């Protein structure tokens, strides 16, 4: 779709250099542009704004997601310089700030999978909840209680907004702060299910995930795995988890969530722990 929208402003050779997809989040488009085409970034932005009728803003992603707050640098290319928008997914509504709080539309399948796994009556700790999408989709689908943690105050505030938008006050408790400290102070042995969607730092927080999870509870452990063959990524993620975990664990399931680079994959391992 991206190349088609730009066929009148880029040569065939230039078009072949572009990443073939962009992220559309509500009324916002975020596009990645190779260095060789940065001189034409404004032209690319204007072409996308004109081509995708419901869009009001086109941003260039100037940096990767980074830091404790999981934010990224965005540069306005065309339209309104406003990074907030409304996003809808599986019947839920979300206010999103694409610059100042972590959000990825590419995790929608995984959000639905987790929501389907949650059981009525469960307590779940979502350690790195961002604006609350996993938490809200689970609580919308099942009668459960979710502790939704994030260190980014903007993300926690948006989570509270989204709890209200989806009429889930009381079902989800949004807490701003460091997940390890919150668990140690408030959530020891509290959850039937723990979600730790911070794949680049999962090993660092595994002890905290174990601390908040009850005996016999389930941890969804995400990581980044290098695999020469895509079919090996799930098995390699299981082996990695078993190598780093300090506790007896039963592997329930593993899968690729999404590719994140050449021969690199974001994976998830679902485990049942015994304390």
Task: Give a quick summary of the entry.
With 275 residues, the protein is of the alpha/beta class.
General description of the model:
The protein has 275 residues and is of the alpha/beta class. It folds into two domains: 2-82, GMP Synthetase, Chain A, domain 3 (2-Layer Sandwich), CATH 3.30.300.110; 101-274, Vaccinia Virus protein VP39 (Rossmann fold, 3-Layer(aba) Sandwich), CATH 3.40.50. 31% of the residues lie in helices and 33% in strands. It has nine helices and 13 strands. The chain has a seven-stranded mixed β-sheet with strand order 9-8-7-10-11-13-12, with helices on both faces. A hairpin with a 2-residue loop joins β5 (84-89) and β6. α7 runs parallel beside α8. The chain is globular and about 60 Å long. The model has no long low-confidence stretch (mean pLDDT 94).
């Amino acid at each position: 779709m991206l190349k088609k929208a730009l066929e009148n402003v880029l040569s065939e050779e230039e078009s072949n250099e572009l990443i073939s997809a962009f992220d559309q989040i509500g009324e916002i488009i975020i596009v990645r542009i190779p260095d060789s085409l940065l001189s034409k970034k404004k032209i690319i932005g204007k072409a996308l704004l004109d081509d995708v009728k419901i869009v009001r803003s086109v941003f260039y992603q100037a940096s990767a997601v980074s830091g404790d707050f999981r934010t990224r640098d965005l540069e306005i290319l065309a339209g309104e310089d406003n990074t907030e928008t409304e996003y809808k997914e599986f019947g839920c509504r979300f206010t999103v700030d694409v610059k100042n709080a972590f959000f990825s539309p590419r995790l929608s399948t995984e959000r639905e999978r987790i929501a389907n796994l949650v059981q009525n009556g469960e307590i779940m700790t979502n350690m790195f909840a961002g604006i609350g999408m996993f938490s809200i989709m689970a609580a919308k689908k099942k009668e459960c209680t979710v502790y939704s943690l994030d260190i980014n105050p903007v993300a926690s505030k948006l989570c509270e907004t989204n709890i209200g938008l989806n009429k889930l006050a009381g079902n989800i408790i949004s807490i701003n702060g460091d997940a390890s400290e919150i668990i140690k102070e408030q959530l020891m042995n509290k959850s039937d299910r723990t979600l730790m969607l911070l794949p680049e730092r999962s090993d660092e927080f595994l002890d905290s995930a174990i601390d908040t999870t009850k005996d016999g509870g389930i941890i969804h452990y995400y990581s980044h795995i290098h695999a020469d063959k895509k079919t090996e990524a799930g098995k390699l993620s299981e082996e990695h988890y078993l190598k780093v975990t300090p506790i007896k664990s039963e592997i329930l399931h593993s899968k690729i969530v999404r590719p994140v680079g050449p021969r690199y994959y974001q994976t998830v391992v679902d485990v049942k722990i015994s304390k």
